[in-house]
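Fold it.
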Amino acid sequence: MPVSRSLPTPGPGIPGGANRLLPGLATAAVALAAAFLVHWLVPVLPAMTLAVVLGVLAANLPAAGVWTAGRARPGLDFAGKHLMRGGIVLLGLKVSVMDVLGLGWLALVLIAGVVAVSFGGTYLISRLFRLPPVTSLLVATGFSICGASAIGAMAAVRRIRHVDTVLPVALVTLCGTLAIGVMPLLVHPLQLSAPVFGAWTGASVHDVGQVVATAQTAGTAALGIAVVVKLTRVLLLAPVAALAGAHQRLFANPGPGAEGTDAKLPPVVPLFVLGFIAMVGLRSTGWLPAGWLEAGAALQDILLGAALFGLGSAVRVRTLLHTGGRALLAALVSWLLIALLGLAAALLIAG
């Protein structure tokens, strides 16, 4: 599994900690600006995916690799962990319970079924390919719910080390990017209508930005249902995180993949997950004006983009090629499983 050289990251209460974080955070800000610029020039490329790709490039180019593994590392690790949680909270502003309920109960049951089966199936596939339990759990979470955001949430709930999230994020980004290129090519061979293609995209593509990039190729009818189906999957992040937290609390046994060495029990539902639920509730009231929602979405993109750059900057391609072959095969098989499950659900929802 790819592991970067890391310098000790000072805690928030340590004097001078901000100065140690500044180089990495400034690097993430510059990279994020570049990602948004490329996205503006080529809208089909999601900014979040570009942020991960730029992180990987920064980690593997000679001079940049020294910088990201050295002075910038504390700030990049801070972004990958803490800014990710802030982004997850603001992600709730994109989810309206009314929109979700508008799909109808059959669609909700089907979407929940796709998430449950894809989660269990991806975990079993990962274990069959002899991936560690921690990696298998994170891959299953990211593939079945909402990509890197879900991986970050699960890692926090289960107290999984930040470095162990790097490979799952790389895999979910790779397969989500693959979907952008492959799925639109299947519309005509499979004779899919725009609503069916949109529902298929929302039910099977990992990240929200990747869903938008994929669905918009079939027009606004596909994009509208794709976003609602996808956000229904995002809404399931809260109960999945709560169940994982309850399981961790009941069977707490900190191992080599856990952060910290004390025996303190983790909360059943972490504070940032409660924040996500609160933002969903706030969005669902309809009280927030469009301007506030747009500002929240922009801030969420900034926080998640910086976090994804930080995670990408820890990926060493040479190490990944030597140690991640089984993981890549497991991810591709899981991607095919979720695509088939999503297509079956889409045909029932919008066919």
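Residues 1-15 have pLDDT under 50 and may be disordered.
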